[in-house]
NAD(P)/FAD-dependent oxidoreductase
Amino acid sequence: MAFAQETDESIATPDVLIVGTGLAGLGMAVKLAEAGHRDFVILEKAGEVGGTWRENTYPGCACDVASVMYSYSFAPNRNWSRMYAEQPEILDYIKHVVKERDLEPHIRFHTEVTSYEFDEAADRWHVRTRSGQEYRPRIVVLAHGALHQPNVPDLPGMDRFKGELFHSAQWDHSVDLRGKRVAVIGTGSSAVQFIPRIAGVAAHVDVFQRNAHWVLPKADRPLKHLERRLFASLPFVQRLYRLAAYWTHELPVLAFLNPKYLGVLELAAKRTLEKQVPDPELRAKLTPTYRIGCKRILLTNDYFPALQRPDVSLTTSGIEEFTESGIRTKDGELHEADVVILATGFSTDNRCASEHIVGRGGLTIQEAWRDGMTAHLGTTVAGFPNLFMLMGPNSGGGAQSILFVIEAQVHYIVECLKLMRSRRATRLEVRAEVQQRFNDWLHAKLSGSVWNSGGCHSWFLDHRGVNRQSWPGTGTSYWRATRRPDPQAFLLTQGGADRSR
Ligand SMILES: Cc1cc2nc3c(=O)[nH]c(=O)nc-3n(C[C@H](O)[C@H](O)[C@H](O)COP(=O)(O)OP(=O)(O)OC[C@H]3O[C@@H](n4cnc5c(N)ncnc54)[C@H](O)[C@@H]3O)c2cc1C
């Protein structure tokens, strides 16, 4: 691709361009501003901030890490109403941060990025949007979400179905479920949150389960008036709650990495099942066949009780096909439905599969990732200079709040920008051999983890069975790894001249 040399007034040339106004992109913006960067824009394809928390509006949508941990450490929310906040409150929190940190002037809404090409002569990216605008930033930060593209399964006869059909991440609020026969496909994190809310509203809810999930009780409750007053007046009290929540999320990871210690968690989950589900037949259907932690553990108090209502049934015989009026299972039974809700998660296999990202020497992200997604510390990819990712490959998983990981990455990126400035480098690119060594280490460490060897196929694994999501350690170890970028890990150049030393 040849690039025009003359400066076009209509082309914006921000120093840093961030894509996405979810928690990752906004966190990046706050920390850039704090580090003294003023010249940045944030492009957002939607008309509002919030990402995940703007899009997922299904009944009961809530976080499954404690609210005190599901907020930025630099912007604690003193007003959480519950131990685990629901979607409207999280979205309000995000909007509050945008207002408080005066980020809105930096955001360009309804601006969907369609391509990124690196201009090697100028050491700048050419970024194009769907509406034809062009940006030429020095740095690009991709914060376009890891759980953003709803996964819509290709089930036989789906287009034949005459009723309403939507994905839980695109909840159709115009569909009134009252008195309807509702089929729910999937029993993961979203399903267990909304099934108890629609049970009793719909005439009947048919839940189609492919695999049973491990369930643990959710320590959710409204925060007491006194607790909220203490949070507001004595910040260290909230910091103590946060510390407790941090370690509650951190400790299970040690067992996920050493599955021989999973017994205690499995015992607790089995007790929960025994206590909440007295019927041995239903209990058998709800008993997982893999080790706990292999898939994300579901935290809920009202899912098992909902399944035992007379107007809710659990079907495990597998879906054969859709008909015009419902779903036929492999045992030949037809389950009539007016509405089908897909609770089938998100496409995570190769989140840049359809992105036009062209790096150094014409390398496309598809070529770079032909054997699967890889990056260095989940943030930089060899062949793609001056481009950073948030929530990139192998930086999540675990049980820790994603916000903790995002903050570590944001810090790392700001440090990389400082490194570039101190070396007067116009280009920073992770060395291919460093990325390779890092990935060899990472996958060796993951091989013994429950995510890889626990006997399930979760969304952490790609279609080849390689784990492309999990960090092979605790949140603390990721935090440590991202404190200071190692200058030796990068090619740092200015106009081709080596600035690495
Ligand atoms: C229902 C649900 C519950 C969750 N609960 C938890 C939880 O309890 N704890 C936890 O740790 N994690 C949870 N997660 C994971 C969650 O995705 C992250 O915690 C976090 O919200 C992700 O933020 P993000 O900014 O990386 O991505 P997103 O929130 O997905 O934001 C990405 C943004 O980028 C925009 N965008 C995408 N492509 C483009 C483009 N080409 N051009 C312009 N803009 C673009 C999108 O419109 C979106 O606004 C949950 C996820 C879901 C779906």
